[in-house]
Amino acid sequence: MNTQLLMVMQVKVSTVLNIGAVPHGARRTAPLAGGTFEGPRLRGTILPDSSADWQLFRSDGVLEMDLRATLRTDDGALISMSSFGLRHGPSEIIAAIGRGETVDPSTYYFRTMLRFETAHPGYSFLNRLIAVASGDRRPEGPIYTIHEVL
Amino acid sequence: MSLPISSRPLMVVRLATSDVHEIGSTPQGTLTIFPVVGGTFEGERLRGRVLPGGGDWVTARGDGTFTLDLRVTLETDDGGLIHMTFTGVRDDANNYFRTMPRFETAAANYAFLNRLLAVGIGEIRSEGPVHNIEEIL
Lengths: 150, 137
Fold this sequence. Notes:
- The structure holds 2 protein chains of 2 kinds.
- Chain A is mainly β.
- Chain A has one domain: Porin.
- Helices cover 5% and strands 63% of the residues of chain A.
- Chain A has one helix at residues 91-98, and strands at residues 3-13, 17-22, 25-38, 43-57, 63-73, 78-88, 109-118, 131-138, 141-149.
- Chain A has an 8-stranded antiparallel beta barrel with strand order 1-3-4-5-6-7-8-9.
- In chain A, β5 (63-73) and β6 (78-88) form a beta hairpin.
- The longest helix of chain A has 8 residues, at 91-98.
- Chain A is globular, with a radius of gyration of 15 Å.
- The N and C termini of chain A lie close together (7 Å).
- The model of chain A has no long low-confidence stretch (mean pLDDT 96).
- Chain B is an all-beta fold.
- Chain B has strands spanning 7-17, 21-26, 29-42, 47-60, 66-76, 81-91, 96-105, 117-125, 128-136.
- Chain B has an 8-stranded antiparallel barrel with strand order 1-3-4-5-6-7-8-9.
- At the A-B interface, β1, β6, β7, β8 and β9 of A face β6, β7 and β8 of B.
């Protein structure tokens, strides 16, 4: 599989809403307070009012992340992004993340796959690709390194 | 700071499809259903057959690309059942056919599939679609 860097995205997470125990795990919703993204072909900001990460902590210890975000490029294009991801790792690492510590992202699995939709002709290449990301959960929010799958 | 992405082969899935169902032009695009009537899958860690009863819901979009929405059941050679789904994009003009498979299984030997993300590279062959699936490490 060949990939190339699409962008690095820094997400700011707002106060997490704990839905609690649902039939298939523990659910919480993390609204996004904003963020930025930057890559060779696009850069801009994450719009807070239509962006959140719907998370489900499964009984096998895996966190499922279902994120939707609206991006605005520096030249005004709107891009809808959806990302589905998994996060898991040794319990002491996951506990450290939970305490708000910064841990080495290579010590746990945090990957997502992404699709984009836009009507802006300058970014229509995004409609035609899938992407994968490596995540790094920082106390203020995750940093995603997003790669286009070639 | 940017993190690397690497992958390793998971399996090759070969699908046998029967005559398509042309649903036709809908508000979402032009929908064609490819029934999956069988097939095989093989990798270092799992192998077996694709059970009949799945399919790929393929929508032709206005920009010349297709979106894919597949679900099938895999049966391993030791009797494990794996629910596999993917969404993806096919862009024939750019020879791009990539998918994002996901797996669900209760078979303990294959629980690792519940915990990984994967990318498939698809190809249309005369005998049917072939998907080279790699695990995202």
